[in-house]
Amino acid sequence: MSIVYKRPAELEIMAEAGALLHAVHDLVEREVAEGVTTQHLNDVAQRAILEFGAKPAFLGYNGFPATINASINEQIVHGIPSGRKLRNGDLISIDIGLHYKGWVADSARTYPVGQVSVTARRLLEVTDAALWAGIRAAQAGRRLGDVSWAVQKTVESAGFAVVREFVGHGVGRQMHEEPQVPNWGQPGKGPEMRPGMTFALEPMVTISRTKVNVLQDGWTAVTSNGSLSAQIEHTIAITAHGPRVLTLPKGAAHGPIYTPLETQLAHQPELALSR
Ligand code: MG
Ligand code: MG
Fold first, then answer.
1. Is residue 179 reached through a cis peptide bond, with omega within 30 degrees of 0 on the bond before it?
2. Helix 144-157 × helix 118-136 angle, to 10°
3. For residue 235, how far is its CA from the centre of ligand 1 (angstroms)?
4. 96: CA distance to ligand 1 center in Å?
5. Domains plus CATH for the chain?
6. pLDDT tens-digit profile of 9-50?
7. CB atoms within 10 A of CB 219
8. pLDDT at 250
9. Dihedral pair phi/psi, residue 108, rounded to 5°
10. Residues 114-134: what's their mean pLDDT?
C-alpha cells in the first residue's frame, strides 16, 4: 500500500464530511451528563449521521458492533456502548467515524463528566495541546516524524505518557490508509509530508506509562495499571498553505478546546480560540 494523495476538490468533500462529523460530536456533547448511558450517546450519534445523509464508518468495521467508541476512564479506545451510566468524575472518550459521498471523516473528543479531578482535567488539556502541537508540525516539506515528536514531546514534558499500541493513520476513501502516524517518534524521520496527504492524528494519553489490555468483549482497550486515558482526534490535510483541519465547521478557526487560553496564546498566537 502507498500513500493516496487527494486533489483539492476531493479535500473539499472530505471537509464537508468533517463538518458533518463535527456537528454530530456537538449533538453528542450536549447529551454527556451524569446518569446518561453510553448506548444513548451512540444512538444520538447514529441518528444524526443518518439524518445528515452519511453512514456510520465504525459500525461493522472489522465486526465492531456500534457507531461510536465510548471509552470511560481507564478505557483507552474501542469501548462498546452499553447500558453503563456515566458518573460524576468520569472521563468519557468518544470516537466517531462517518462515510459521506465516498469519503471518511474520523475524529474523537474526550469530555469530563461533572466535576473531575485536577489530574483528569490536566490530562484533557495536555492531550488537546499535544494534538494541536502535532497539527502545527504538519507542514509540507517536513517529515511525519516531526508530527509524532511534537505530540510525544508535549505529552512527556507534562509528565504524562503516550499510548504506543495504537496510532493515527492516513484516511480518505478508506478509514485506514497509509501512512501510520504514531504519537511518538523522531524529528526529521519518516515520509515527507506533501500537499494532498490526509491523516487522522489521534493522541491517546495516559497519566503514567502502562501496558494495554483488551477486555473479554474483544474490543475495549484498557490501561493495565488503571491509569486514566484520554483521546482527542482530528482528520487533517497537508496543504501548501499549512495544515488544514478537516473535522471542523466550515470556515472555522479553532484551537484546542481544553488548553488554558494563556498556554494557547504562548504556543500558537496564530490560532484563534472559538470555543
Ligand atoms: Mg477515530
Ligand atoms: Mg482514527
1. yes
2. 160
3. 9
4. 6
5. 8-251 (3.90.230.10)
6. 999 999 999 999 999 999 999 999 999 999 999 999 999 999
7. 19
8. 79
9. -140, 150
10. 95
